[in-house]
């Protein structure tokens, strides 16, 4: 076979080498017109790196993530911890544990009754998208990301590409579209997330492979009900899989004009997960997604929308080269300030609905969530806080209470979050503090209530900048006493601390009262 090196498209740190026939396939993906001269983005990573962080994303800081689908019907993970949205996979991989559970719930287990039979039980019968949108707005969120398709292959939108869609089986309505209308009516940005990259291995014997046989009970289900094959399969990353992947995203793009392209981590792109990462179809998948991002960016130019893309994956194993989109990984925590990043954080341990977490009220406390938001923002990140609604479309009270508590805190302290930038340092230990800035204003968000005067350490900052500063406490009318020291600004605690969870001292470096 003759091989051709594609210039400028690295894959796992290497240039891509593919066969000419495969190159022709990749070039023709999507059957869209070739890029014309007036297109802003071409099919290179260098071009995609030029897309700036949208102002709405950079300044919004706080979004809501939603994992919701047929897996929510069961709402279970072994031990009451972990990713409940993975039960479609886990029920076949650990049949000894999960089959009795499925039989207890539905009267039978695979292959007589499998995931395909759970799907119709997902009805969203009590769902009110306007109620969700109102809650998210009250929580102080600025954007919403809802799972359009998880690894299970079920489409939550009005899809013409699969019979396993929410408009055809289950709720019988366009969940992605209806929520988009509701949240955008509240002035929030909206993005359906896409997780199909692992679908070929979700019901197969191997998770991260170019091809793997289906689980024997899955194969038996398909033999009994041939229609199930289009849900459980395909089981191979080949030309048809790649073309279908791109077509599904483009259908979402065309119908809903997402404000953000959110794609899950693709393990087969990295050697540590996939021994076949050199396989030409896996490489062509990478090229196809590169083109898909460029086409989305160009489409958004036509819409007049500032958009962006995530770059999911653990350190050293991101989907795209560094500089394309923003860095992201599940429950990501950073030690210091970074380029733009996002933490898609769980409320508990699961993304999908987990009944044990609801019953035990095992979610992070409001204080933990406020501290998490402040920590992420101080380091130039966004918090994308996930909720997992019940299958009927209702949101557990424990989740609601926490979201509303965050909204109440943001009503008072939001100016220290929205539209801010990182300071020269993100935090100091005593007292436990996070910093943000906005023009000439420094915000010091303390996570505790010091009983004695404390110093906001200026570090390398010229203290002359603070000679005529004004210091106040958000949510309080009390005059805050302060003074300059060799180390920074000494602040005297107020007589009364307003609110709860965290407290924000505002330091305005503008002419005003002299230090006391």
Describe this structure in words.
With 516 residues, the protein is α/β, with parallel strands linked by helices. It has three domains: 3-37, no CATH class; 55-392, Alpha-Beta Barrel (TIM Barrel); 427-508, Sandwich (Immunoglobulin-like), CATH 2.60.40.1180. The protein is 30% helix and 17% strand. The protein is built from 16 helices and 18 strands. It has helices at residues 20-27, 45-48, 55-60, 87-93, 95-106, 115-118, 129-138, 175-185, 199-202, 216-224, 229-232, 239-256, 280-303, 355-360, 366-378, 397-413; strands spanning 3-11, 14-19, 62-66, 143-149, 189-194, 262-263, 310-312, 326-328, 341-345, 381-387, 427-428, 433-438, 441-446, 454-457, 470-473, 482-484, 488-491, 503-508. Strands 6-5-4-3-10-9-8-7 form an eight-stranded parallel sheet. It has a five-stranded antiparallel sheet with strand order 11-12-13-18-15, covered by helices on one side. It has a three-stranded antiparallel sheet with strand order 14-17-16, with no helix packed on it. A hairpin with a 4-residue loop joins strand 11 and strand 12. Helix 7 (129-138) packs across helix 8 (175-185). The longest helix has 24 residues, at 280-303. It is globular and about 80 Å long.
């Amino acid at each position: 076979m003759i091989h051709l090196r594609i210039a400028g498209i690295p894959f796992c740190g290497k240039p891509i080498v593919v066969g000419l026939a495969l190159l022709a396939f990749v070039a023709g993906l999507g059957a869209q017109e070739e890029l014309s001269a007036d297109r802003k983005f071409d099919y290179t990573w260098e071009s995609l790196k030029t897309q700036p962080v949208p102002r709405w994303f950079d300044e919004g800081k706080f979004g809501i993530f939603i994992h919701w689908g047929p897996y929510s019907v069961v709402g279970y993970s072994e031990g009451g911890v972990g990713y409940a949205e993975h039960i479609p996979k886990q029920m076949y991989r650990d049949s000894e544990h999960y089959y009795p559970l499925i039989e207890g719930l539905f009267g039978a287990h695979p292959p007589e009754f499998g995931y395909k039979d759970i799907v119709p039980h997902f009805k969203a019968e009590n769902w009110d998208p306007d109620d969700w949108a109102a809650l998210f707005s009250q929580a102080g969120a600025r954007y919403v990301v809802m799972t359009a398709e998880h690894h299970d292959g079920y489409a939550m939108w009005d899809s013409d590409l699969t019979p396993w869609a929410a408009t055809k089986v289950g709720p019988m309505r366009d969940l992605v579209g209806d929520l988009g209308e509701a949240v955008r009516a509240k002035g929030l940005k909206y993005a359906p997330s896409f997780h199909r990259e692992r679908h070929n291995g979700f019901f197969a014997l191997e998770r991260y492979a170019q091809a793997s046989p289906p689980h024997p009970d899955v194969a038996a289900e398909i033999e009994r009900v041939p229609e199930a094959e289009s849900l459980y399969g395909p089981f191979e990353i080949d030309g048809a899989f790649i073309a279908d992947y791109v077509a599904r995203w483009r259908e979402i793009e065309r119908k809903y004009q997402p404000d953000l392209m959110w794609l899950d981590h693709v393990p087969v792109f990295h050697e540590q997960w996939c021994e076949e990462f050199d396989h030409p179809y896996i490489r062509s998948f990478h090229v196809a997604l590169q083109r898909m991002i460029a086409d989305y960016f160009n489409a958004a130019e036509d819409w007049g929308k500032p958009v962006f893309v995530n770059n999911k994956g653990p350190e050293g194993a991101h989907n795209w080269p560094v500089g394309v989109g923003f860095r992201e990984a599940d429950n990501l925590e950073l030690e210091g300030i970074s380029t733009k990043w996002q933490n898609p954080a769980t409320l508990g341990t699961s993304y999908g609905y987990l009944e044990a977490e609801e019953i035990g009220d095992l979610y992070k406390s409001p204080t933990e969530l406020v501290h998490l938001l402040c920590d992420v923002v101080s380091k130039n990140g966004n918090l994308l806080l996930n909720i997992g609604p019940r299958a009927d479309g209702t949101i557990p009270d424990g989740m609601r209470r926490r979201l509303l508590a965050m909204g109440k805190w943001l009503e008072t302290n939001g100016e220290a979050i929205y539209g801010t930038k990182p300071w020269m340092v993100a935090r100091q230990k005593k007292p436990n503090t996070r910093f943000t800035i906005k023009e000439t204003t420094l915000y010091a968000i303390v996570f505790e209530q010091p009983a004695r005067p404390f110093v906001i350490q200026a570090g390398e900052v010229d203290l002359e900048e603070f000679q005529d500063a004004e210091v106040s406490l958000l949510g309080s009318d009390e005059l805050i006493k302060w003074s300059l020291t060799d180390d920074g600004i000494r602040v005297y605690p107020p007589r009364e601390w307003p609110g709860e969870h965290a407290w924000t001292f505002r330091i305005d470096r503008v002419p005003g009262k002299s230090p006391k």
